[in-house]
Specification:
The structure holds 2 protein chains of 2 kinds.
Chain A lengths: L10 E6 L4 E6 L2 H7 L2 H12 L12 E6 L13 E6 L6 E6 L3 H7 L4 E5 L6 E6 L2 E6 L8 H12 L4 E4 L2 H4 L7 E3 L3 E3 L4 H7 L2 E6 L10 H16 L2 H9 L3 H9 L18 H5 L2 E5 L9 E4 L3 E2 L3 H8 L7 H14 L3 H16 L5 H4 L8 H13 L3 H5 L19 E2 L2 E2 L10 H9 L20 H8 L13 H18 L17 H12 L5 H21 L11 H5 L14 H15 L9 H8 L11
Parallel strand pairs in A: 1-6, 7-12
Antiparallel strand pairs in A: 1-2, 3-4, 3-6, 4-5, 7-8, 9-10, 9-12, 10-11, 13-14, 14-15, 16-17
Chain B lengths: L9 E5 L4 E5 L8 H5 L5 E4 L4 E4 L9 H5 L6 E3 L4 E3 L11 H5 L13 H7 L4
Antiparallel strand pairs in B: 1-2, 3-4, 5-6
Classes of the chains: A alpha+beta, B alpha+beta.
Chain lengths: 623, 123
């Protein structure tokens, strides 16, 4: 590989909470070149450091907080980091990307990546300042919710610090507790917060430090201004900045694909439309360096809601009252939990009760859809792990106790409840995407929805590098669509930029590989070609797959929820559509072939050797 | 160096209370920082009302930091200098105005209604 990294560096602090020690290392340049940062470097470390089959909530698990390669440079929307660990919700990969203000501050504090292992004897805080990490007593903060801890840390450590925290749910090791920053931003999926809680770690405080060098600040600023103009002209960027992600609710509802009543229905009330939500919003606010500003400050002392929240805590629970859905959103954030899993698990329990599969002996009383007060109570009991809440806090791992051992009524894959409120029975690429997503049923790994825009064939050819079937309900060529999206999102997650300005996520325009290479090269004087970035993308996807292969994932785990196969959608444009098993498995087979995995979905051993070669300083084979 | 704590605009956020405060030079009519600066690094351009900063003259005493009523001057403890808005003299458009994507910040030279209104908020 001929490229130079220029001034691009990546420094890691390895914290052993059991021993109370901190070691520092510069990530080897070959590894930085091969995995960039953020999600990419995190999986490179996790694969190397973690032994297979460890208990995710034991001291042996490793929690990595890693900033992206462009995080904090001032590049558009570059305020992000990834929290990566073995998930206590799935026992597979837990990897979640998060915005806010913490990631740039961590980098300015002189550390790009925190690698945390062991378990502290008592509640602790990590403080990062001037390139040094110290372990401090946090007993006084234990028990605080997300709002309280954020306020307390700013009062005690200074107004200019930034922090990641856990709330009561993380302390109680709820399997879908989040690592949070501010009062709403979350490394949401897979229970990263439960791992932090299992380590007795309440917060990480970034207090500032030396900053880092930009190769040529004037030309880098000029490039960012140019990109800002390009991006802010985009219609989807403008709309996201005005009303945020709830704009997607109406789209799914119109199609008849909004998950409703635990996916027993697929259309719901208009009370959760973006314009209605907006009546409950004080203003739109942003993350660090953001030009989109899609986050709401609502009028009920909180931030949000996202589309995910209005879908999964609204339609999916049949709660239509706008204010109440926003109140539930605020409550879940305050307790530090993943709204997707909370909504998915609650609706699962409600349907099981509706069908008589569980009864009062486990629930403690009647539970029904559409009951806001009940939802509020159950959410609190989950975070506290009290009564029935203690069962639900185990997510898909409560299946036996809920008399649904095969999770027939839980919309989940690989044990992870599906995040997107979009029912995947209609768009077949979307179905494949959540089936192959490395962390379980999740839309942020691929979310191939450009198809609903009815784009001209020549534009599709340009995007996908092949002729793809324009029909969203077709199974043909969708493996190409999914792989293309997965690849570029692994880059945007590795450079620490938000998907909302990434090509393919909501728009056929926005930032592509050439922009990412321009930004990296301008910021650091590096020389990344477009092809090299594409090779990084494939590496990240393959290594994540190798990680979950090592934990036992094979073809049978790339399986959609039963309902997506067996029950046709009842409403709207999508009425009558479901996923055909045979065609789905053929599509999955084509996807493996395209990825050069074997028929069982395994990454070949020779490829794993290649993927790990950068750790040995070895030259990498062509990829 | 990339480090937002060394910017001439500092934004304090309190997400729980639900507000942001932007600490930025408000161009006081009778700026206390200029009066306090013994190194004559800070001067008032009476024609434009701009507070001008000559970084080379700054000796890092932080008197300006202490007297600024708007928290708009921060000490750069590594460089031993003050950091404050230098009005981007010489640039077509101040860097902050160019970077802002919402139009929340603008640079207005004339004595128009907006300026007058803003002047009401000056010290």
């Amino acid at each position: 590989m001929s490229n130079s990294l220029g001034k691009m560096r990546s420094r890691a602090a390895v914290v052993d909470l059991t021993a109370g020690t901190v070691a520092y290392e510069d990530t080897p340049p070959e590894v930085v070149r091969s995995y960039l940062g953020g999600r990419g470097l995190n999986i490179a470390y996790l694969y190397k450091m973690l032994q297979p089959n460890v208990d995710p909530l034991s001291p042996d698990n490793v929690l990595i907080l890693g900033t992206g390669a462009l995080t904090g440079t001032g590049a558009p929307n570059s305020g992000r980091f990834n929290a990566t660990t073995k998930s206590p919700e799935t026992n597979l990969l837990g990897d979640a990307n998060c915005g806010g203000f913490f990631a740039p501050k961590l980098r300015y504090s002189g550390i790009d990546r925190l690698i945390i292992k062991g378990r502290a004897r008592h509640p602790s805080i990590l403080k990062v300042e001037d390139g040094t990490v110290t372990i401090e007593d946090a007993r006084a903060y234990w028990g605080m919710d997300i709002y309280e801890i954020d306020t307390a840390l700013h009062n005690d450590y200074g107004q200019s610090i930034e922090a990641v925290t856990i709330g009561p749910a993380g302390e109680n090791m709820v399997r879908f507790a989040c690592v949070m920053t501010g009062i709403k931003n979350a490394a949401g999926r897979g229970g990263t917060g439960a791992v932090m809680g299992s380590k007795n770690l309440k917060a990480v405080v970034a207090a500032g430090g030396p900053g880092f060098e930009i190769q040529d600040p004037d030309s880098f600023v000029a490039l960012n201004e140019e990109l800002k103009k390009y991006l802010t002209n985009s219609m989807v960027v403008k709309v996201l900045g005005r009303v945020g992600t709830p704009l997607l609710y109406e789209v799914s509802n119109h199609l008849g694909t909004i998950r409703t009543r635990n996916s027993q229905d697929s259309q719901f009330e208009d009370t959760l439309n973006a314009e209605v939500i907006h009546e409950h919003i004080d203003k739109m606010i942003s993350c660090h360096s953001c030009i989109v500003h899609c986050r709401h400050r609502n009028t009920y002392k909180g931030e949000g809601p996202e589309y995910t929240t209005v879908g999964l805590l609204g339609a999916n629970l049949c709660i239509a009252d706008t204010a109440n859905v926003i109140r539930l959103n605020n409550l879940v954030n305050r307790l530090g939990m993943d709204v997707s899993s909370v909504g998915g698990v609650l609706s699962w329990a409600l349907e099981l009760y509706q069908r008589g599969i569980i009864d009062d002996s486990i629930t403690g009383g009647p539970i029904e859809f559409g009951d806001y007060d009940l939802a509020d109570r159950l959410i609190r009991s989950i975070a506290a792990r009290e009564g029935f809440g203690d069962v639900l806090a185990d997510s898909s791992q409560a299946a036996e106790r809920l008399n649904d051992p095969e999770c027939n009524y839980l919309t989940a894959i690989k044990g992870l409840p599906q995040s997107d409120p979009h029912d995947c029975r209609y768009i077949k690429a979307f179905a494949l995407g959540i089936a192959t997503a490395s962390r379980g049923a999740d839309h942020l790994r691929s979310r191939p929805t450009l198809e609903v825009f009815d784009l001209p064939p020549e534009l599709l050819r340009e995007i996908y590098g092949a002729d793809v079937d324009r029909d969203p309900t077709s199974y043909l060529t969708k493996e190409i669509v999914v792989a293309t999206h997965e690849n570029i999102y692994s880059i945007v997650d590795s450079v620490g930029i938000c998907k909302f300005i990434c090509h393919g996520f909501n728009s056929p325009k926005l930032l592509k590989y050439d922009h990412f290479s321009q930004l990296l090269n301008a910021a650091f004087g590096a020389s990344f070609s477009i092809d090299e970035l594409k090779a990084v993308a494939r590496r990240v996807v393959d290594l994540e797959r190798a990680f979950i292969n090592r934990e036992g994932v094979r073809r049978p785990q790339d399986m959609l929820p039963r309902r997506y196969f067996d029950e046709p959608l009842p409403h709207g444009v999508a009425k009558g559509h479901h996923v055909d098993r045979d065609k789905f498995f053929e599509m999955l087979g084509r996807y493996y072939k395209l990825r050069q995995w074997d028929e069982d979905g395994m990454v070949p051993k020779s490829r794993i050797v290649e993927l790990m070669a950068p750790w040995n300083g070895g030259k990498e084979a062509a990829s | 160096m990339a480090d937002d704590s060394r910017g001439a605009i500092q934004i304090f956020r309190d997400p729980v209370a639900g507000f942001e405060y932007q600490a930025v030079c408000r161009l006081c009519e009778d700026p206390e920082c200029v009066a306090a600066c013994m190194a004559v690094a800070l001067t008032l351009d009476r024609k434009t009302g701009q507070v001008l900063f000559d970084r080379n003259r700054c000796v890092g005493c932080a008197m300006c930091v202490m007297v600024c009523p708007h928290n708009a001057i921060v000490p750069d403890r590594r460089a031993g200098k003050a950091i404050l808005c230098d009005q981007c003299v010489g640039r077509d458009k101040p860097a902050c105005v160019a970077a802002c994507s919402t139009g929340a910040i603008d640079f207005v030279e004339t004595d128009d209604a907006v300026t007058k209104e803003m002047a009401g908020t000056r010290k």
